[in-house]
Each structure stands twice: as structure tokens, then as C-alpha cells.
């Protein structure tokens, strides 16, 4: 009897066997692929859209800075092409295309587009800059 | 005729008397004996009990993570904790939430991971009244160092030795100041463990 009492006591008082109970919560969060363009500088008068940007030709000729942003699954790394067209991309329309090789699935790069030729070809037309990932 | 009837009646009465004597004879020939009392012990043990369960919100999801921002999970986790303990032997009941790895609370692959310091929890009815990161230490051998969050602690007294409480746990990802996450589906598991101390 004394041993039984002593087994359940310490100098500080009774000792209870620690009890535990467990439950779990599952977490799922998805990171979607992103391809976007952000205008740099106010002179281009760019209104941001994703993934395309409609831009009015600059009042004065010059370069338009664009920041291309992408976040893609590694298996989809390929060529990134920055394509500039006029208007609603009519059939046979000329365009400027710049090709960038994606080395990192998550990165950004600055591109400066010279829009003078676009302005001379269509003075008041919108210039559509489109980022295309192949 | 009358004589024969009387004779039969006498015969029946004689038989009945004989039977009665046979039945009564043993009792009349022995004294009553009563056995000593035999005790039967009755024992019933009420064991202590402790359970924790998720009533709702057992699967938390974010459809599309926004980089560099706070991303809240859709709904709170409703947790129910029930205990029946001996106040003389149990000082408190505590609930701890934790991940098993502080560097990888959620992961979409070996190189795509979200640390537990980027996961925050809040229990308005518990200890983390404001959103707090899962960076605490374990309690009483429960939890993971650097990846735990203590949700509540109840001191046990007489009145609350048998009790049930329900709490809501809000969860979110705090990705502010973080570089963009790689594309993918990040999964992880939070363990909720109640423990008596």
C-alpha cells in the first residue's frame, strides 16, 4: 500500500500519467503560373493589362521601357518573346519581336522597345505589346 | 353402495395424509442452518479521458497564392477538445499546433518550400489572440522546436475537471518580403495535440 502511494507521489505532489490526443489539418495552397508586363516610365502612357499591354505611341520618339515578369513551372521553361504589334493584330501586320531565352522559371527582365517605327507606320494607332511564352 | 363410497373417501384422505407426512418429515427432523455471510466486492474505475477533434475546416486551401502578400486560408478550423481528469493529478490541459519540420511547413517539391515561420495562426478564444507564426517550442515533449504554436492552456480545478471546449483556429500565409514562390501545389499538415500536464 505504501509503495502504491509512493509510486503516485513526488516531493511536489501527485504525478499523473501524461495524456495526449491528436488531430490533423491538411493545408493546400496553389501557386499559379504568372506572365506579366509592367510599363516603366510615364512617357509611354501605358495602361497595364496582363498579359498584354495596350499602349499609345509616345508623343516623342524614343524607347519604351517594359518589365517582363514570369513565374512558370520548370518544365515549361522555354523561349519568351516580346511581340509588338499595331492595333488589333490584323492579318499580315508587321511586328517587332524580341526573343529571350528563359533560364529561370521565376525571374523578370527589362526590355526597351523603340517605337519610332511603329509611330511612323500608324501615327494614332494603339501599340499592343504582348508577352508570349513558347 | 353408501359403504363403498365412504370407504373410497377414507382411502383418499389416508393417501393425502401419508403424502403430507412424507413431505414434512425431513424438515421436522433437521435444525435450520444459516451460512456465514459471504462478501462480494464491487469495483468501478472511471479512467481519465482526453480527446481532440476537428469539427470542420480539416482541409484548408488557397486557390492562388499571391507573392509578397498575406494569403488567408478559406475558413477557420473548428477544434473541439474534451477532457475528464482528476484535479489532484492533472494541473492543466494544453492544446498545441505544430508542423514536423520548421523549414518545410508546406512544400511543392524538394526546392519549393514554405517555412513554418511564414504560417500564422490565431485563436481568439485562446492564447494567440493575434496572428502568430509557428515558431514556438514544444510543450511537455509535444510539438516541434521552432514550428509550434501553443493554442490554449486551461488550469484544472474541481469545477472544470470534466469539460468540453470548442475553438476556431484561423490560418494564413504571410509572404510579405519574400521572393516569388515557384509555381506548384504546396501541401502540408498541421498536427493538433492536446496534452495534460
Report, as a whole number of angstroms, the end-to-end distance of chain B: 101 Å
Helical stretch tally of chain A: 2
Secondary-structure element string of chain B: HEEEEEEEEEEEE
Helix count of chain B, per DSSP?
1
Q: How is the biggest beta sheet of chain B arranged?
A: 6 strands, antiparallel
User: What is the arithmetic mean of pLDDT of chain B?
Assistant: 88
Order of helices and strands of chain A: HEEEEEEEEEEHE
Structural class of chain B: mainly beta
Proportion of strand residues of chain A:
over 45%
Radius of gyration of chain B: 38 Å
Shape of chain A: rod-shaped
The largest contact between protein chains, plus residue counts on each side, is:
A-B, 27 and 58 residues
Regarding quaternary structure, what we see is heterodimer
- Mean pLDDT reading of chain A: 55
Number of strands of chain B: 12
For the termini of chain A, the CA-CA separation is: 82 Å
Low-pLDDT runs of chain B: none
Strand content of chain B: 35-45%
Can you tell me about this structure?
The complex is a heterodimer of chains A (134) and B (197). Chain A has 134 residues and is mainly β. Helices cover 9% and strands 51% of the residues of chain A. Chain A contains 2 helices and 11 strands. Chain A has helices spanning 2-7, 116-121, and strands at 9-10, 13-14, 20-31, 34-40, 46-47, 52-55, 63-71, 79-86, 96-101, 106-114, 127-133. In chain A, the strands form 3 sheets. A 5-stranded antiparallel β-sheet of chain A has the order 5-6-11-8-9, with no helix packed on it. Chain A has a 3-stranded antiparallel β-sheet with strand order 4-7-10. The N and C termini of chain A lie far apart (82 Å). Residues 1-15, 41-62, 86-94 and 114-126 of chain A have low confidence and may be disordered. Chain B has 1 helix and 12 strands, in the order αββββββββββββ. Chain B has one helix spanning 2-29, and strands spanning 49-56, 59-62, 70-72, 77-84, 92-98, 106-109, 112-114, 119-122, 132-133, 148-155, 162-174, 184-196. In chain B, strands 1, 3, 4, 8, 9 and 11 form a 6-stranded antiparallel β-sheet that branches. In chain B, strands 7-6-12-5-10 form a 5-stranded antiparallel β-sheet, with no helix packed on it. In chain B, a hairpin with a 2-residue loop joins β6 and β7. The model of chain B has no long low-confidence stretch (mean pLDDT 88). The A-B interface holds A 8, 14-16, 18-34, 71-74, 105-106 and B 48-54, 57-65, 67, 71, 73, 77, 79, 81, 85-86, 88-90, 97, 105-106, 108, 114, 119, 140-142, 169, 171, 173, 179-197.
